[in-house]
Amino acid sequence: MSTTTVDTTEITGIPHVIGGARVHAEGRTAPVFNPATGQQTGEVALASADLVHEAARIARDAQRAWRDTPLGRRQALMFRLREIISSRADELARIITAEHGKTVADALGEVARGLENVEFCTSLMHHLKGAYSEQIAGGVDVHQVRQPIGVVACITPFNFPAMVPLWMVTTAIAAGNAVILKPSERDPSAAVWIADAFAEAGLPPGILNIVHGDKEAVDAILDDPVIRAVSFVGSTPVARHIYSGAAAHGKRVQALGGAKNHMVVMPDADLDGAADAAVSAGYGSAGERCMAISVVVAVGAIADELVAKIAARLGGLRVGDGADAATEMGPLITRDALDRVRGFVDGAAADGGRLVVDGRELAVDGDGFFIGPSLVDAVTPGMRVYDEEIFGPVLSVVRVPDYDAAVALINASRYANGTAVFTRDGKTARQFEYDIEVGMVGVNVPIPVPVGSFSFGGWKDSLFGDTHMYGPEAFDFYTRRKVVTTRWPDPSESQISLGFPTH
């Protein structure tokens, strides 16, 4: 394994963007690091509650004119935004790599998946259509329209600093809302870049506001009466906090939580293909994906061979600075994350697992937040490495005797974001799709993230709220339906009737 690091010493101030203006730090700040070097490269302003409330009121004042903007103009803006992002995707990808650590190729993939939702929003006139029924009673017609909520908040995670904001804010803005976006304070620069891209596309000031911060800013979002809806992606404990806090204040809320994604490998599967998929989905982006495969479920007698094939592939992975084109896996986001993942590997053998590949043995020059890929066999429920979301390059193997045991294992998990089955048998695949209690399912597809015309979301403790992210359900979330009943009677028809209206 090899690594290349870049020495970056300049500290950049990362501002809020409120009402179209850059607002620099006046008070608390937080450091931003290049994970590949361990060096601080930026300092991000952390918003006070008062600043969040001020941003919300600026957004409210701007939103009325944006709601009045014809749909065709909003749609044209989305087309311009698409061209800006697609033409400068490499620029955005390198910003992501510098603060998150993932490879540039992986960051470009993130930007591409975010662009899918921009493209979906270019058809906003179709997605915002209402409904009409005439003559539901004598001379009475009914129609339904979609109207924006007003001001909405989007709280996004560190692991996809461009894709998840593009999942949320594009739909919210297309639907006529103003947005308060609070990105992760660990890698905030991508959100500022996106705000600049929106402004270049012609979005009026105050419609997209970037407010950096920590728990103080989040709690202010939950409390603020101007903000009427909250979208969130992150860990399950925080998702639960946001869901309960937003609901207690009467807000609409969708909060996507953690994951523990299982990949079932049946005895008839192509084991080389399954091993390739497990490595790709388990260690891509250093495992810091909510749809990463973290558990391989080996069914029957193929376990030994499958584990050996996965282990053989790990020795050839190139771990290093994501800015190096030769790198396949970058560092973790922070030193705390590194220490946490090391703790999982430390405890795996003590809990009874067999450490086949030990990522702690990776030696990297410099002070970056690196750990190599780890593979743990003979994992069972009850072990910490199985029960908790690791969010790092640690892949567990659970051995089960048959299909029924595999399904029971997955359905017993409190997480239900994504899962996959690898098999050559169509009947098994169809039965798995039918039986499994998980929100997103892949058949010989290890990371079944839906394309932009469908919606993203899990079940159980992976989703709080009843609306999934992006796609058609996002337009449902960011709009309210209003039903209008009309009648144009002749004056001679007027009469007093205290009975309940009927047909």
Keywords:
Aldehyde Dehydrogenase, Chain A, domain 2; 16 helices; six-stranded mixed beta sheet; 2 domains; seven-stranded mixed beta sheet; disordered N terminus; 23% strand; single chain; globular; alpha/beta; Aldehyde Dehydrogenase, Chain A, domain 1; 503 residues
Describe this structure in words.
The protein is an alpha/beta fold and about 500 residues long. It folds into two domains: about 10-255 and about 460-485, 3-Layer(aba) Sandwich (Aldehyde Dehydrogenase, Chain A, domain 1), CATH 3.40.605.10; about 260-445, Aldehyde Dehydrogenase, Chain A, domain 2 (3-Layer(aba) Sandwich), CATH 3.40.309.10. It has 16 helices and 23 strands. The protein has a seven-stranded mixed sheet with strand order 15-16-17-14-13-19-20, with helices on both faces. Strands 10-9-8-11-12-22 form a six-stranded mixed sheet, with helices on both faces. Helix 2 (about 70-85) runs antiparallel to helix 4 and helix 2 crosses helix 7. The N and C termini lie far apart (about 75 Å). The relative contact order is 0.15.
Question: Outline of this structure?
Answer:
The protein is an alpha/beta fold and 503 residues long.
CATH superfamily of the largest domain: Aldehyde Dehydrogenase, Chain A, domain 1
The protein's oligomeric status is single chain
CATH architecture of the largest domain: 3-Layer(aba) Sandwich
Q: Output mean pLDDT.
A: 95
Catalogue the unreliable spans: 1-8
Shape: globular
DSSP summary, beta strand count: 23
Using the coordinates shown, work out and report the CATH topology of the largest domain: Aldehyde Dehydrogenase, Chain A, domain 1
**In total, how many domains does the architecture comprise?**
2
> What's the CATH class of the largest domain, please?
Alpha Beta
Overall structural class, as computed from helix and strand content, comes to alpha/beta
- Percentage beta strand: 15-25%
